[in-house]
Amino acid sequence: MPPMHGPGFFLRDLVVLFAIAIVVVVACVRVRVPPIVGFLITGVLAGPSALGLIDDVRSVEVLAEVGVVLLLFSIGLEFSLESLLRLRSVLLAGGGLQVAVTAALSAAAAALYFDLGVRQAAFLGILVALSSTAIVLKLLSDKAEVDSPQGRVSLGILIFQDLCVVPIVIVMPILAGKGGGATDMAAKVGIAFLAVAGAVLGGRYAVPWILGQVVRTRSRETFLLVIIILCLGAAWLSSLAGLSLALGAFLAGLIISQSEYSHQALGEIVPFRDAFNSLFLISMGMLLDVGVFARAWPLLLGVAAIVGVKALVSWGVTIVLGYPFRVAVIVGLCLAQIGEFSFVLAKQGRGEGLLSDQVYQLFLAAAVITMVLTPLLKGIAPRLADLLAPLVPRRGAKTKALAEAPGAAKDLHPHVLIIGFGLNGRNLAHALQRVSIPYAVIEMNPETVRAERKKGEPIFYGDASSPEVLEHAGIGRARVLVIAVSDPTVIRRATELARRLHPGLHIIVRTRYLQEMAPLIELGADEVVPEEFETALEIFSRTLRKLLVPRDLVDRFVREARVNGYGVLRGSKREPQPEGGAGGFMAGADLEVLRIEAGSPLAGKTLAESSLRSLTGATVLALRDGNELVTSPSPAAPLKPGTVAIVFGTPEQVARAAAMFRGGEDGPAGRA
Q1: Are 133 and 154 in contact (CB under 8 A)?
Q2: Which of 51, 277, 421, 477 is least surrounded by CB atoms within 10 angstroms?
Q3: Is a pLDDT exceeding 90 seen at residue 300?
Q4: All domains of the chain in start order, with CATH
Q5: Are 482 and 419 within 8 A, CB to CB?
Q6: Is the dihedral of CA 242, 243, 245, 249 positive or negative?
Q7: pLDDT of residue 631
Q8: What is the mean pLDDT of residues 319-338?
Q9: How many angstroms separate the CA atoms of 114 and 433, rounded?
Q10: Cα(565)–Cα(443) distance, rounded to whole angstroms?
C-alpha cells in the first residue's frame, strides 16, 4: 500500500510519535536512562524496521533539520568568551588532545576493521571522538558535580568538541572529495572567517540596535519572531554561500550572544529547540535498522572498543593536565559515549558518501548503546577508581603535593585546614588572614594551585580523599578542618578519613542540601552547613529587616530556626553524650564570643556598671584585651572598645547580650 500524504496524515504521525515518546521517555527516566536515549528508542520502535507506524518519514526529517538549526543556534547563544577564557587550558589542551588522539585511534581501528579508505576512516574517527554534552552535564548536575574538578575538566573538553562541529561541517564536502580540492577548501574557510567577522560586527552594532527597537514595543510575540527570522535567515544565507545551514544558525546565535538580550532570546527559543530536537533524535532512531542487533558480536565488539578507547584517552588527557588519578577515571568514564552531534554529522556524512549503509547502521546502534551505558559507567566510576588506585604509582597525590609544597610539612602548624579554594574557601582564607590565624589549603585544580602559590598562599595540590595529602598538609596539627568542595563523594571520603586520622579534630563541612547532613554527621562531621538551609535563613532575615523588624528579634528567630532545623540531626552524633554528661548539661545553652564595638553602651564601663547580667540574663565567663586573657572576670573589670568576651546563656539571653555589644544603629539606643 503506498504511503498516504497530506496535513491530516502528517499530524497523525506527529501525534503517534509524541505519544510513544512520552511513554518511552517516562520509562527511561524512572530507570535513570537519559531522555535522549528515550527519543532514539521511540524512533526505532516507530520506524519502518520495527512497527512501521509512520507513513510520511520525509516530513518528519524536514522538521528534524529545523531541530538541528535551532540546536546550533542555541549553542551560539550560549557561547561566552569569558567562560572559555576561564577554561582555556582544559578547553584547548585537554579538548584538543582528546579529540585528536581519539579520532586518530578510532580512524585506524575503523580502517582495519571495515577496510575503509583514509577519508572515510578519518570521518568515522571524528564521529567517535565527540561525546554527549546533554547527557554528561545532566548526570553531573544531578550529583552537584558541575563545579567539581571532574566537572570542570569534562565541561572544558565538551565545549571544545561542540566548537569542533562547525569546522567539521565546513570541511565535510572536501573530505568527501566533492569540494574541488585544497583551493575550494581554502575558499570555504575564508568565507567562514568572513562570516564570523560579520557576525562579530553585527553583534556589536546592528543587532543590538534592532533588538532594542523591538524590545521597546513590549511585544513578546514580535521579539520571538525577530529571533526566529535571525536564526532561519542566517541559516538560509549560509546555504546560499555554499556553507551549511547549521553554520549559519550558529553564527546567528553568536551575533545575539553579544547583546544584552541573549538570555531572553535563549529563553524564548528553548521550548522550540527542545521540541524540534526530540524530533531529530526520533528521526535518527527511525533510520536505525533493528536487524543490525542480530549481528551481536561485531556490535558488542565495536561498543567495547569505543568505550575503552574514549575512556582511556580521556583518562590520559586528564592525567596530563595534572589532575589526580581518581578525577581522571571519572572523567574517562563520563566521556566514553558517542554524542548527539555525531548523529547530525553522521547523517550528513552518509549523504556525502562518507559512510556506507552497513557502517552507518552499526555506528547508530553502537552510539545508542554507549548512551544507555553512560549512567551506569558514571555510577561505578568512583568505586572503580578506588579499586585501581592501589595499583597505580602515587604520582598524582603525594609526589605532586610534595613537589609543589610551599615549605616542609614538619614546619606547618595550621590551626585551620581548608579543603577547596572556591568562593567559600577563599572567603574563609581571607578572614583568617585578617585575624592572623595560620591555615593551609588543599586544592585539586593545578592551575589554581600555581596561581595562588605565586600570591603566597599556603596551598597544596592533591586529592583530599588521600591520607598522604592530608598528612602532608598538617592535619595532625590542625584544630579545625573545613571541607568546602562541591563534590559529594570527596566530601564524604574526606570527612571519614579525617575523623580516622585525627579523632580530636573539629570538622566543619559545607554541603548543598539539608538531607545530606545526617550521613555526614554519622561519618564524623561536627558541624554541617547546608547551603539550601542557610540561603533560606538569609532570605528570611533580610526580608524581616526590610520590614523594620528589630534586629534582636530577627536574630532570635534565626537562632530558633537553626535549633529547630538542626536539632533532630544533632541527635545523630557519632557518639551521643550521656544524659548527665556535658552534652546533656549544655542542652539549650549557647556559648558565644562577642566583641565590644565603638559606640556600644558597654564601652567605657566596668562589668558591674554595665548591668549586662541583670538586663540580659547572660553571663560573661572570660574577657580578652589584646593578648591578656582574664577568666572569671571581677565586677570591676573594664570594658573597652575591642575587648572580646565569652558569653554564656540561653540563645535568647545571648541574643540580647549581643545587641548590647553592638554600637551605632544596631545597638539598643539606635533601635529605641
Answers
A1: no
A2: 51
A3: no
A4: 7-388 (1.20.1530.20), 403-570 (3.40.50.720), 587-671 (3.30.70.1450)
A5: yes
A6: negative
A7: 87
A8: 88
A9: 63
A10: 31
The grid coordinates listed for 584 are 546533656
The length of the chain in residues reads 672
User: All 3 cell numbers of residue 125?
Assistant: 574517527
CA 383 to CA 272: how far, in whole Å?
40
Gap between the Cα atoms of 369 and 359, Å rounded: 15
Residue 559's CB is within 10 A of a number of other CB atoms, namely 16
**Strand 459-461 versus strand 480-483 pairing type:** unpaired
Q: Which SS3 state, helix, strand or coil, does residue 644 take?
A: strand
Residue 571 burial by Cβ neighbours in a 10 Å radius (0-12, 13-18, 19+): exposed
The answer on pLDDT for 76 being more than 50 is yes
Least Cα distance to 484 among 463, 462, 509 occurs for 509
Separation CA 645–CA 616 (nearest Å): 15
Contacts 24+ apart (CB under 8 A), 661-666: 661/594, 661/595, 661/596, 661/597, 661/600, 661/602, 662/597, 662/600, 663/597, 663/598, 663/599, 663/600, 663/603, 664/597, 664/598, 664/599, 666/551
Other CB atoms within 10 A of residue 458 CB: 19
> What's the predicted TM-score (pTM) here?
0.67
622: three-class secondary structure by DSSP: strand
Place of cell 528553548: 270
560-563 long-range contacts, CB within 8 A, separation 24+: 560/651, 561/537, 562/537, 563/651
Q: What is the pLDDT of residues 337-391, one digit of tens each?
A: 898 778 778 888 887 788 888 888 888 888 888 887 888 888 888 888 878 877 7
* Three-state secondary-structure class, residue 352: coil
Cβ burial, residue 16 (10 Å; 0-12/13-18/19+): middle
Is the per-residue pLDDT at 309 higher than 90? Answer: yes
**136 CB-near residues (< 8 Å, 6+ apart):** 154, 158, 334, 335, 337, 374
CA dihedral 225, 227, 230, 236 (to 10 degrees): -70
The model's pLDDT over 128-143, given as tens digits with 9 standing for 90+, comes to 999 987 778 777 776 7
389 backbone φψ class: left, alpha, beta (φ>0; ψ -120 to 50): alpha
Average pLDDT over residues 77-94: 68
Q: Are strands 506-511 and 480-483 parallel, antiparallel or unpaired?
A: parallel
**Residues 4 and 57: beta-carbon distance below 8 Å:** no
3 state SS of 360? helix
Q: What is the 8-class DSSP label of residue 396?
A: I
